[in-house]
Amino acid sequence: MAKVAINLSTGALQQAEVIVGIDLGTTNSLVAYIHPEDKKPIAINDQGRGTIVPSVVHFAQNGETLVGTEAKDYLITDPANTIYSIKRLLGKSYRDLGEHKDYFGYKIIDDDSEGLVKVRVKDKFYSPIELSAEILKELRERAEHSLKTPVNRAVITVPAYFNDSQRQATRDAGKLAGLEVLRIVNEPTAAALAYGIGIDPNEEKTVAVYDLGGGTFDISILSLHQGIFEVLSTNGDTYLGGDDFDRAIINHWISENQLVADTINQDKNLSQELRLKAEEAKKVLSSQEVYTSNINGEIECHLERHTFERLVAPIVARTMENCRQAMADAKLKPEQIDAVIMVGGSTRVPMVYDAVSEFFGKPANNSHNPDEVVALGAAIQADILAGNRKDILLLDVTPLTLGIETMGGLMDPIISRNSKIPTKAGRQYTTSVDGQVNMKISVFQGERDIVKENRKLAEFDLKGIPAMPAGFPKVDVNFILNADGILKVEAIEVRSGTRQEVEVKPQYGLTDEQVEQMLMDSITHAKDDVSARMQIEARSTAEQMLYQVERFVDKNAEHLTEEEVALTRKNVQNLKNVLASGGDKDAIYGAVDVLEAQTSPFAERVMQISIKKAMSGKKID
Ligand code: AMP
After folding, report:
1. Residue 333 burial class via C-beta count within 10 angstroms: exposed 0-12, middle 13-18, buried 19 and up
2. For ligand 1, atom 15, which residue shows the shortest CA distance?
3. What residues contact 288, with CB distance under 8 A and at least 6 apart?
4. Does the 19-195+370-385 domain belong in CATH 3.30.420.40?
5. Where are the domains of the chain?
6. Residue 99 Cα to ligand 1 middle (Å)
7. Which residues pair with 302 in a beta bridge?
8. Are 576 and 594 within 8 A, CB to CB?
9. The ligand 1 atom nearest the CA atom of 285
10. Confidence band of 525 (pLDDT split at 50, 70, 90)
11. Per-residue pLDDT for 621 more than 70?
12. How close is the Cα of 345 to the center of ligand 1, in Å?
């Protein structure tokens, strides 16, 4: 396997070019780079606007898109057009959101509970990938403006628990923002790198990374061995953070002040003011003992540190329980942890710092700014990949992405380019047609979203899938890439155990120049590719919907009124027309939405009828 180190914009080998590190966070995002003179990582502060860019996107009335602090101001005044916490939606289906569907102040589309969610803003539909790309574009522009040079390549961090689909979504967002994502790095790994852990390839260490942000909490236990970080365990709570501290303070003030208690529910301004004061109090109490302020000279806001600590103690205790669980999962005792690292703004609370240090029996590392530390580590990783740190071992990597063809001729990446080898990865697929007994597995290599632009390596049929309705068979496709770069692809139908495998040699026949060309093409066509992919996805969603609705109406016509059948036919026809006329993805999703809204009550009705029927046939004693 080759170690690819070429300059993608010029095709030249190894040339100094800025590669940035990006922390794409739930609440805040940052971009950092390595300063060319002192070689230290530094977070970019463009035009003195601060290093932190709130992860908020606002679609203004005049068609403009705002990102960051300016967008955040609209969270209260125009929530339907202001998107926050996009990271919580990345790579997720509506069903994945579970009990948290009401958390979001904007419209999330539930057309297709299995497919990836979309967000509706006015009459447009956005995927979380497009929305994340808006944030990445802003970060890229800030970096370009501040460094006065084009920025085309980046390392982006994700939580250690992110699955394959969430990682792929993050990569796609980068592509859409015009960035080549050299690597997706785990946030705790980046934080460790920022503290110099992992720089020496001979170092052996076990590290705990405690990350308490505004709305999420993660604890990760990592093991560093021969220059490779391995995640031993992760735990946490995706809905716990500094916002809960603020809420505890607000509730305390409400309980102390009858006037506030009586008016808070009606007075939106007051509740917003209180929220701001609560956050300010919390921050002040990280360095002082007492906080005193007021709202409009009328409402006193007073809090002492010991009261604050009593209020938040149960929340801190919950995070410690998560730490205990993570340690149990990693089968480690606190004394086996060599270093503890603090990440996230909420670790500035002294009580949090003390609790974590006490739990692990050693002082936690907090000398870096906890808001910036992940981005700083990402910048170091970027520098390593750029080949600027000769002292660091670059592991063997796959030069091009390996994947299989899915619906509509799209490339579904299984092993990403730059993954270190040996490696193994897999994904589960299903059938799209009732009674399908064969499945064609086509293996491709390349960076383009459309398979016909990539290189076909192998193709085989998985035969003997038991005939079942569409969506029922579960086919695991695994890619096993050994240290010599030989790829073994296996497909297994889980229920029947039917199995098939082939061996391919991905790099065979490709010269360095060809690899280089394929990479450069992927950069040139990145934006077109992502839009083509989105268009194909919209069409596939529509086709699946049409297939299901028509099948449903055929089978259950007796339970529907004539008007319902007629209206369904009309909406089906309308969707077919949109497809036939080559409508764009917004037009397609618009028509899908109408059909979905109209037909979704049918399924429930038919289900109830069949339950009643089943019950009437049985006697209950
Ligand atoms: P993050 O998601 O990592 O950006 O963390 C942001 C959270 O850190 C918010 O809840 C902030 O209120 C909180 N935070 C920032 N500064 C401080 C501070 N000095 N003391 C306590 N919490 C803070």
Report:
1. exposed
2. 345
3. 305
4. yes
5. 19-195+370-385, 199-367, 402-514, 528-615
6. 26
7. 292
8. no
9. 20
10. confident
11. no
12. 3
Q: Three-state SS for 479?
A: strand
> How far apart are the CA of 100 and the centre of ligand 1, in A?
23
User: Given pLDDT bands bounded at 50, 70 and 90, which one contains residue 13?
Assistant: very low
Which CATH code fits 528-615?
A: 1.20.1270.10
Helix axis angle, 305-329 relative to 350-360, nearest 10°?
A: 30
Per-residue pLDDT tens digits for 160-175: 888 777 888 898 899 8
Q: Any idea which architecture 199-367 has in CATH?
A: 2-Layer Sandwich (3.30)
Q: Strand pairing partners for 22?
A: 31, 156
Residue 243 CA: which ligand 1 atom is closest?
A: 10
With a 6 Å cutoff on the Cβ, whether 247 touches ligand 1 is no
Residues 44, 51: contact at Cβ < 8 Å? yes
Catalytic-role residue among 130, 172, 187, 529: 187
**Mean pLDDT estimate for the chain:** 87
Residue type, 283: K
- Token representation of residue 108: 């999330």
What pairing do the DSSP bridges indicate for beta strands 402-406 and 339-343? unpaired
β-pairing, 339-343 vs 205-212, is parallel
Q: Report DSSP letters for 391-430, one per residue.
A: TSPPPPB-SS-EEEEEGGGEEEEEE-TT-BSSEEEEEEE-
CA separation for the pair 412, 91 (Å, rounded)? 13
305 in contact with ligand 1, CB cutoff 6 A? no
371 CB near ligand 1 (under 6 Å): yes
pLDDT in tens, 235-290: 999 999 999 999 999 999 999 998 889 888 888 788 889 999 999 999 999 999 99
- Residue whose entry in the numeric block shows the structure tokens 């970096």: 143
pLDDT of residue 500: 86
The correct answer on CATH 1.10.287.180 for the domain covering 402-514 is no
Note whether 363 and 347 are within 8 A (CB): no
Rounded CA separation 177/184 (Å): 15
Reported as a single tens digit per residue, the pLDDT across 556-601 is: 888 889 999 999 999 999 999 999 999 899 999 999 999 988 988 8
**Rounded distance between C-alpha atoms, residue 177 and residue 171, angstroms:** 10
Give the integer Cα–Cα distance in Å for 183 and 186.
Answer: 10
Tell me which of 130, 180, 211, 237 is the catalytic residue.
211
**Residue 242: alpha-carbon gap to chain centroid:** 21
> For ligand 1, what atom is nearest to the CA of residue 211?
3
The pTM assigned to this predicted structure is 0.74
Question: Which amino acid residue places its CA nearest to atom 16 of ligand 1?
Answer: 345
Known catalytic residue: 187?
yes
Quick: pLDDT tens for 345-401: 999 999 999 999 999 999 999 999 999 999 999 999 999 888 777 555 444 567 788
The residue ranking higher by pLDDT, 42 or 521, is 42
Kindly tell me if the per-residue pLDDT of 75 is higher than 60. Answer: yes
130 is written with which tokens? 């497009």
CA end-to-end distance (rounded Å), the chain: 70
In angstroms, the Cα distances linking 516 to 15, 110, 456, 523 are 15, 41, 17, 11
**Does 199-367 match 19-195+370-385 at the fold level?**
yes
213 C-alpha to center of ligand 1: Å? 6
Distance 319 CA to ligand 1 centre (A): 16
**87: annotated active-site residue:** yes
CA nearest ligand 1 atom 20, residue: 283
